[in-house]
Design brief:
The chain is α+β, with helices and mostly antiparallel strands. The chain has two domains: 57 residues, no CATH class; 433 residues, Cytochrome P450 (Cytochrome p450), CATH 1.10.630.10. It is built from 25 helices and twelve strands. The strands form four sheets. Strands 1-2-8-5-3 form a five-stranded mixed β-sheet. A three-stranded antiparallel β-sheet has the order 4-12-9. Strands 6-7 form a two-stranded antiparallel sheet. The chain is globular, with a radius of gyration of 25 Å.
Length: 522
């Protein structure tokens, strides 16, 4: 009797709480007046269903666009958050420090499982200090000084592609470009950490699997942020047996924790290294920075910065390069002749590299890179920020201070009101861009939270595309845009169809020779 009474009381209490919460969220909440579906206003399980259950996962980005089609440019997408689809508002929300403070919304900031890294830092002022500690490593002058390292990695990439094409008849571009981008940023950012993915197909595939695991986990961590902290405390063996996807991420995090601990313990001479710009690395940049307090230099915190840099910088650059190469090869007749003329003007001898400053002055190459970045629209997840002190206004709407407000940068980059045929690859649009096009070019974000590694990523893009296309006559091999290139799901970074086999390329000369041999046999 007592047990039944207790269960009934608990059920009634839960029902009463749920009813009261529903009434509050629908009628009394500060966002109750904003348009949007009632189910989204009631519970975050609405979002969880689209991102975790609805096949193939990561579908809430499409549902948000459907909401906008019905309710207009400002929509309440969950009980606490508003989303705006209006490209002209991007500078207001993602403003520079002079435009106001912008904190991150914790559930979004912590989706990568790095709450103390620069990506996961919520507070505006703390983020500014942490960012300033690592920004010298990715400044324009620093990137120019390490050009030769980038060029050498590109040569190794080309050697790897040739070898794979000779052995298999084709090479998978995304796998190899991930190896290139990761090896490059790893050598630049870490003194004592080398992955050497380009020289080992096995290591490259293992790393790709780890990155894929992070992509799969990200929507889950966003909905259940307590999962990864618990997993980080568990032994690896049972994790690999039960949840290998989680185990790969945990192993990578622990490796970065180890390298950060060695840096803090002084396993290399910080005093000497800080005077030698050529020996500068990420951990040294943080540990010798005067912008942050000593309490902000403990191993577990700086390891999170290292984890974000090596994972994000490698995958995003690789995806941008993959998309660019695909569209160039798919449109060879219209794109390549003019591009080859430009490349031959600064790289007259095959095998020679050109300085970044010269490559950046090539208008057609620059237009191709800019259009590739726009069309990739890689960050599919919305990026909510909070104005902690001042209310925001959008048209006739007054948004209360402290409200998470988000936009999706991919929507801005593909805005049909600004870009004609936005899903078509048209580099010529950047030869004479309109002011609205420049305003909507948010490939690296905007404001105080924009990508800290933009200069380094652009250097990788310029050097890789220029050398690769100047020295290898590539063609696409059994690659389908809808399956292997187009983004269909949101894993923070947009992902292609689960059925994708990658972006495959072959050498035109080898394919022609193979076809000739087959004809001769016939």
């Amino acid at each position: 009797m007592n047990q039944a009474y207790f269960i009934l009381s608990a059920l009634l209490l839960c029902a009463g709480y749920t009813i009261c919460l529903a009434i509050y969220r629908l009628c009394l909440h500060p966002l109750a007046k904003f348009p949007g579906p009632k189910m989204a206003a009631l519970t975050k399980w609405y979002e969880a269903y689209y991102d975790l259950i609805k096949s193939p996962g990561g579908q809430y980005m499409h549902e948000i666009n459907r909401m906008h089609d019905i309710y207009g440019p400002i929509v309440r997408i969950n009980p606490d958050e508003l989303h705006i689809r209006d490209s002209m508002y991007v500078n207001t929300l993602y403003c520079n420090p002079a435009g106001g403070k912008r904190n991150k919304y914790p559930p979004a900031a912590h989706m990568t499982g790095t709450p103390e890294g620069i990506f996961g830092t919520v507070n505006h002022d703390v983020h500014r200090k942490r960012r300033s500690a690592i920004s010298p490593l990715f400044s324009k002058s620093t990137v120019t000084a390490v050009e030769s390292k980038i060029q050498q990695k590109v040569r190794t990439l080309c050697d790897t592609l040739r070898s794979q094409i000779v052995h298999h008849g084709w090479a998978e571009l995304r796998l190899n470009l991930l190896a290139y981008a990761t090896d490059t940023v790893c050598e630049h950012s870490f003194t004592n950490l080398r992955l050497d993915l380009l020289t080992s197909d096995r290591r490259a595939r293992q790393w790709r699997d780890s990155i894929h695991a992070i992509a799969i986990l990200t929507p889950w961590i966003k909905q259940f942020p307590w999962v990864l902290p618990i997993a980080l405390k568990l032994p690896l063996s049972p994790l690999y047996a039960l949840v290998p996807v989680v185990a790969r991420v945990v192993e990578l995090r622990r490796a970065m924790d180890k390298h950060a601990s060695e840096a803090v313990r002084g396993s290399f001479d910080l005093a000497q290294k800080s005077q030698d710009s050529k020996a500068q690395d990420l951990f040294n940049s943080i540990l010798t920075s005067t912008a942050i307090a000593p309490s902000d230099k403990h191993p577990l915190r700086i390891a999170q910065d290292g984890f974000v840099i090596i994972v994000a910088a490698g995958e995003t650059t690789a995806r941008m390069l993959t998309t660019a190469t695909f569209h160039i090869l798919e449109n060879k007749r219209t794109i390549l002749p003019r591009l080859m003329q430009e490349l031959e003007s600064v790289m007259p001898v095959p095998g020679a590299a050109a300085e970044l400053a010269k490559l950046e002055k090539l208008p057609w190459l620059s237009a191709i890179i800019k259009e590739s970045l726009r069309l990739t629209g890689l960050v599919t997840s919305r990026l909510p920020l909070v104005s902690p002190d001042q209310p925001l206004t959008y048209r006739d709407w007054v948004i209360p201070a402290g409200t998470p407000v988000s936009m999706t940068l991919r929507d801005v980059l593909l805005d049909p009101k600004i870009f004609d045929d936005p899903c078509e690859f048209r580099p010529q649009r950047w030869l004479d861009p309109t002011p609205d096009m420049e305003h909507a070019y948010v490939a690296f974000g905007r404001g105080s939270r924009m990508c800290v590694g933009m200069n380094f990523a652009l250097a990788e893009l310029y050097h890789c595309l220029a050398y690769l296309l100047r020295n290898m006559d590539l063609e696409l091999y059994e690659t389908v845009r809808e399956r292997d290139i187009d983004i269909v799901r949101d894993c923070f970074i947009g992902e292609v169809s689960p059925s994708s086999v990658g972006v495959r390329v072959a050498l035109k000369s080898s394919r022609t020779a193979a076809a000739g041999s087959e004809s001769a046999l016939e």
